[in-house]
Structures
1.
Amino acid sequence: ENVNQVHRTGYHFQPPRNWINDPNAPMYYKGLYHLFYQYNPKGAVWGNIVWAHSVSKDLINWESLEPALYPSKWFDNYGCWSGSATILPNGEPVIFYTGIADKNNSQIQNYAVPANLSDPYLREWVKPDDNPIVNPDVSVNGSAFRDPTTAWWADGHWRILIGSRRNHVGVAYLYRSRDLKKWAKTKHPLHSVQRTGMWECPDFFPVSSFGENGLDPSVNGQNVKHALKVSLDLTRYEYYTLGTYDNKKEKYFPDEGLVDGWAGLRLDYGNFYASKTFFDPSTNRRILWGWVNESDAVQQDTNKGWAGILSIPRKVWLDPSGKQLLQWPVVELEKLRGHNVQLSNQKLNQGDHVQVKGITVAQADVDVTFSFPSLDKAEPFDPKWAKLDALDVCAQKGSKAPGGLGPFGLLTLASENLEEFTPVFFKVFKAVDKHKVLLCSDARSSSLGEGLYKPSFAGFVDVDLTDKKLSLRSLIDHSVVESFGAGGRTAITSRVYPTIAVFEKAHLYVFNNGSETITVENLNAWSMNLPVMNVPIKNRGGE
Ligand code: DQQ
């Protein structure tokens, strides 16, 4: 075993080596899922960006192909940056992406089409000579103009968004076209927000008001809401709003009461960026991928020879309240579940930590439901915290200090004597008229290593506590802990680099440091098997 590889993930998406960032153009075509991603073929730092390409039958086992897009034309000679796929009504895919045209980072939008539509692997992509299809006009900042979305059809035109900024205003420009080649900017952007800075990788999609099915990008009307997600490059985090898309006015109106800015709703409160969804017509789901960026020291990235992974793909749908999205790891992941252990009716008094044994806890899937007899011991919610990021509340409270109702949850990737551990835990507070639930994934105690980024990631969970239960699912995979609170209401992903708690020296515990007794009603934990992860496809003929 190469010592540099102790932190490689087992079942998260990752190429064999080198740097990866944004997922690009996820799509389903002729029985295969295609995933492209920003990739440096030459090293473990960002640069030399091409579109690497992988295919899968199940979103879990991946085979790799040659890069689909790489600098080769005057309009993308300095980089092939992020973009999206659109499936046309005749079933043919087209990719829109950002080309970097010169040393000054000039950004223009291009398209590419498959060379051979009968090849389900879509190995070869052609960039026609009528590129670029969108140039920035004089009103647009040409070095902040990128990441075209999937196109949708509305009011007699195709539409795409392009992320941008004007001074400090984050902008999603809307373009329309009849033929997907000649594009015109609409009079007003689809949406813009003061003081949010550059909007990278916008994602705009319809969600159904009822049920869990996804919708084709062009669906709009009754019982449909739209989600607009943007990635803020100033802090490397994302937020989204839900709202109404008016085809005729060519405008998006976020719902009243939602925060449209830095403190907005987030798909994930941890290491998660440049995310993108696609509609999977084979299962009627909308599926989300995110780039799980690094927290290791840059020099370590180079020493290891790799940096970056992708999240486990997640199904996304609208919460019946209409106030947020819900997310859950795609069901196909469960095929990797191996040996299982369970706990049930396990009482946790203040100070208890009980070990979960018998599985490979450094590469595991854990699903647990906690219950408590009452909410009486919830600590008061300090009104001052309303102005703070949840991460700061987590930092003040932590997992170790005794509390009322919580902290309780999991200690993941823990060394035997708890020199290292990544706690994923709840704390329930009492605010003036309601309870507030904090979910925290606190990397501060995750490693004795140096030069690491170890934030106390956290998010609030908008959950009904009348049944006095809270559930948690954590996907633990060597250097990542991807957690879903209360059935996917709040997700937090942490990259962590323990020095002791690796492989069989990693332990898993359930714990409670609150004065209210917690019951582990039911815990299921599985060892996770290894999928096929980006093994090259060799000698496979097309049709
Ligand atoms: N990454 C790409 C850009 C995008 C950024 C370049 C987001 O297209 O804006 O690798 O991580």
2.
Amino acid sequence: MPQTSLPPSLHDALVQILGPSGVLTNPADTEAFCVDWRALYHGHCAAVLRPANTEECAKAVALCHAHNVPMVPQGGNTSMVGGATPDSSGRAVVISTTRMNQIHTIDHADLTMTVDAGVTLKAAQDAASAQGLLLPLSISSEGSADIGGILATNAGGNNTVRYGNARELALGLQAVLPDGNVLNLMRKLRKDNTGYALRQLLVGSEGTLGIITQAVIQLQPAPRSRETALCAVENPQGALNLFAAFRKQDPSAIHAFEFMSGTSMALVNGLIDGATLPLEAPAPAYVLVELASPRADDSLRSLMEDVLGSALEDGLVTDAVLAESESQRQSLWMIREEHAEAQKRAGASVKNDVSVPLAAIPEFIEAATKACEALIPGIRVAPFGHIGDGNIHFNLVQPEGADPAAFLAQDHAMMDTVAEIVRKLGGSFSAEHGVGQLKTYMMPSWRGGAELQAMRRIKAALDPQDLMNPGKVLPPAQA
Ligand code: FAD
Ligand code: 2HG
Ligand code: ZN
């Protein structure tokens, strides 16, 4: 007998559609799908459904809809906001996209890739790269996060500064709506003004309006030259001044411009094997800058050397190292990409994935640091992030030796303290990770009035039974 709360007739019908390996009910098999990457949320599910294509997905969704069973779409399960974790009731099914994993075509004329939702971002990047092309979105979780997940969350990451968020890359999309109907928007058009932008509505909807099953992603020519440098700076203002210096010379050359505080860098150096700081001495803050171009010439090298040369002379940069090989480049990136993992190893942390206008970043970091240190003595304020986009991961790590649960019990106090400073500076409480279940409580005060009402109406129109990822993004109606 399957261990599930699904009615036997529904279970059998799902097995008919998806095959026995497409319907997991054994808790040992479903457990990993019910906990998030940070292990903040532990849910339960009636089953994990694993459709292999859009048609199977649509049939499974139609059946769940008919039986009033809530559905939680899940890709790589790397959400930072508990977006893909079911609640504790055990009523929902998780619909995992990992078996929808075909790369269909790479089109050199249109510079696009047609791909299933369950293809990991890394597999899609590698396929593009093998054909001399670039899929211009990069995040540290790209080995697990998949195309459906990155579109559903409108992921940002390291190359947003040059190419925009996932939304800007999605030319076409296919999705299964909450009632099982298939919305086919798989067009490859760069111009198509024919009514409401449903594709853009699905992007960033965090699984609450439907399950993305395929997409057409825009590609770029692969870079043929790259220059990468790690720089020590005195403070966030120094990082911004350096950004302005590069931007003044050639904004299109900047492929990544990442900020790391001294505290967050020290955690990486201390907790991640091989992540040694390749500079003379620790600094208050760092920038990882990458320039790239489809041209194979040495103009990028001159650009990097000119800007860094002046910055070193002026004292804006106090030390710098340039990657001299691909392996050195990867070592520099590893230091940046291990920030999330290092903070996970350092104990409990509270994440504030915020954005503010660029000019307000120094004031934001200074004010928020002071406020959080006053709130919790010994707290380790460890900001880093995509400073070129105005997006700072203003993360707060528990005091050394503190009780993680006691620290996390104050998460709303910390989040609200930071958010109020962000609000005053005209920013957003969630820049790239989304709302999920972690931040729904913030929606009424940040997106209240007509904005939240419009969102609720859209949700009610497409999902009147509230079956698709309930409890995510939108707070309960009375809130
Ligand atoms: P999941 O975690 O499985 O799901 C995320 C949300 O999307 C959930 O609400 C889920 O219900 C929904 N969803 C998933 N698949 C579908 C689908 N096919 N159709 C509809 N809804 C779906 N994010 C950034 O933006 N930038 C970063 O730099 C970044 N770095 C990260 C680094 C690490 C180490 C980790 C753990 C996370 C990071 N993230 C980052 C957050 C996360 O990886 C991204 O949000 C990613 O886009 C999620 O993809 P996923 O496939 O894992 O989605
Ligand atoms: C990153 O930029 C991710 O590395 C993770 O968005 C951020 O750990 C975080 O808060
Ligand atoms: Zn990020």
